[in-house]
Amino acid sequence: MFNTIVLGAGMCGLASGMMLARDGHRVTVLERDPAPVPDSPEAAWERWGRRGVAQFRQAHFLQARGRQVLEAELPDVQQALGAAGALRLDPIARMPTSLTERDPRPGDEQLLTWTARRPTLEHAFARAAESQDGLEVRRGVSVSGLETRRVDGRLHVTGVRDERGERLAADLVVDAMGRRSALPKLLCDAGGDPVHEEAEDCGFLYYTRFFRSANGSLPEPRGPYLAHVGSFSIATLPADAGTWSITLFVSSRDQPLKRLRDASAWSALVRACPLHAHWLDGTPITGSCRWAA
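Below the sequence we write its predicted structure tokens.
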């Protein structure tokens, strides 16, 4: 039985913690954001403060491999997603009509996945983690340093220190803090070698709005979920509980298209796309456009 500390209570951190706990290890998950887990997925969407997740209310899509891991390792999380109204998505059913060979083949089922808003997904993980034996999630805890020792000249991490000075020993420390992880700096501060990192600006901005239907139905796709249209791309993704998102992707160097931050300009561009304009036929549940790089 190992004593494990996981840094970060996003989906990857909680999934790691639950799987380690189910293997019989003691796990403590430390999360910087202090907000407690809301009572419902809808409450999570409306008011869950997750400042540490840069794209918490952006469009989200669970890759098929993630669904396979849930099915094999965390079936209760998968069941919670279904209960929350997450949509079961079959990409094979969305193949272009120009393909004449459409008969199912062995292995097609591996491509099935779930689609839902990110707060709904994270709510399902967080609720499962709260009831997991051997797992403790501490929210509102920031790590300020690493506990280390030298073994044959190499730095070994033996635990962490939080901002209050409390020391937590561990046999294993898992970094699940995402792309903004502080671990490289923490390792350097502890006397470790510099961590080589490479970063590149993707060169794109994307602008997203979410909608909801009055009766729970979703727009019928008339084209691919992701389509390239001249100088921009458009993604229309169904989500959970009768909601969906529309995202416009543009070059970050295209100054005129930065007007898409304005909801009226954004709607006008979507309305000009004949295969996607009908996705506007719903009630907006985000006011202005959420944009990110």
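The chain has a mean pLDDT of 92.
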